[in-house]
Amino acid sequence: MRPGGPAADDNGMRLLARSPERRVGRSRDAAEPGSTTTVPATAPQRTGQAQSAAPAIIELARVEKIYHSAGGRRGGRGVGFPALSGVDLAIAAGEMVAITGPSGSGKTTIINLIAGIDRPTAGTVTVSGSRLDQMTEEMLAVWRGRTIGIVFQFFQLMPTLTAMENATLPLDLARLGPPRERKVRASHHLATVGLGDRGDRLPLELSGGEQQRVAIARAMACEPPILLGDEPTGNLDTGLARDMFELLKGLNENGTTVVYVTHDQALAGMASRIVSVRDGLITGDSGRRP
Ligand SMILES: Nc1ncnc2c1ncn2[C@@H]1O[C@H](COP(=O)(O)OP(=O)(O)OP(=O)(O)O)[C@@H](O)[C@H]1O
Ligand SMILES: [Mg+2]
Question: How far is the CA of 279 from the centre of ligand 1 (A)?
Answer without folding.
Answer: 10
